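Supplementary Methods, section 5.1.

A reviewer requested that the exact input to the structure prediction be made available. We therefore reproduce it here, unchanged from the version used in the analyses.
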Amino acid sequence: MDNTRLRYLLSRYAGKTITQAEQSELSDFLNAADNQTQLELLIEEAWIQSGEEEELFFPSPQLSREPAPQPLKRVYWKRWVAAALLLIIAGSAWLLATRTRKANKLPAAVTENIKKDVSPGGTKAMLTLANGNVIALDSSLKGTLAQQGDVNLHVSPGMLKYDQNRQTSANSIAYNILKTPKGGQYQLELPDGSKVWLNAASSLKFPTAFVGKERRVELSGEAYFEVARNAGQPFFVSVNNASIAVLGTSFNVMAYTDEAAMKTTLLEGAVKVSQANASSLLKPGEQSLLEPNGKMKVIEKADVSLAVAWKNGLTSFKSADIKTIMRQVERWYDVEVVYSGPIPARSFTGDIPRDANLSELLRLLEISRIHFKMEQRKLIVMP
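The structure derived from this sequence is encoded token-by-token as follows.
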């Protein structure tokens, strides 16, 4: 197949206008070992052209997400370039309906500088009981874990559940802490049936039973909540000297101390975010930004899917600079990121499965002519 025909098919594929016959033709070409050299040369051409863009987009047709609005500068992209870049991210058969991931040759710079790849994070956490005992949780544990007063702790792969046997008195309440390390995540079902997904490098302090007029937990880091409705006992999240009042709802809180603002994103229901004299009542689809100085801002049409991408198995970024992305990398891949030399000002939009190795994410970023080098668990970012 000549390059003109190949570019045409890639363009049709990226534009989602490819016919069944054309997709079959493209699939046959990509799966033929004899065409590897031609494909690599085409990818290199796309690599060079895309490296000149100020903002890079990485379309992901394998993901069932609503398409995000595309800025006008996207018109500078040739569709075949975008499709060719997809071939850098994953094996062609995976992209063309089979979704079976294949080994793929890394760009030379990534191959040379990362001798040993870094695996993604996984399901792991530490549970600290009221008596100070610490229990390591992972994806293999299941069964009854412990008992705290009148509450039984049950664990299934990736999830900890608190079952309250009977009405609990205030005197028998104990507090537990669930903490995820860098490279860890875990799910928790509280005694009232509320569910919490805890992201990496985060912790949640909570009672073993909710008694009294309110339900209150303390968060550090990031978590997604699905709160059980109970109008007579409102739910509160204490985080970074702020308070989030909840009445049966689904929302995400991102409150890492190394981020510029605490973000509360509402999916369903209603929440009120308060700190000192500032407060905001959010409606579904809105996001509050609370800065360390107490200044609060509300985004009425927030990118909800971006806020909860981590919970849905994606590493996602939208018009993000390299340092914003690297903070995600540090937390999920448990590496230290350092910068060497002036890094080009670039912004990125795209996503990649969260179970991808670190090299798969880095090869996307190297398109912008930012380079990387691994030394033990230290990732060095270079121009």
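The chain has nine helices and 24 strands. These observations are discussed further in the main text.
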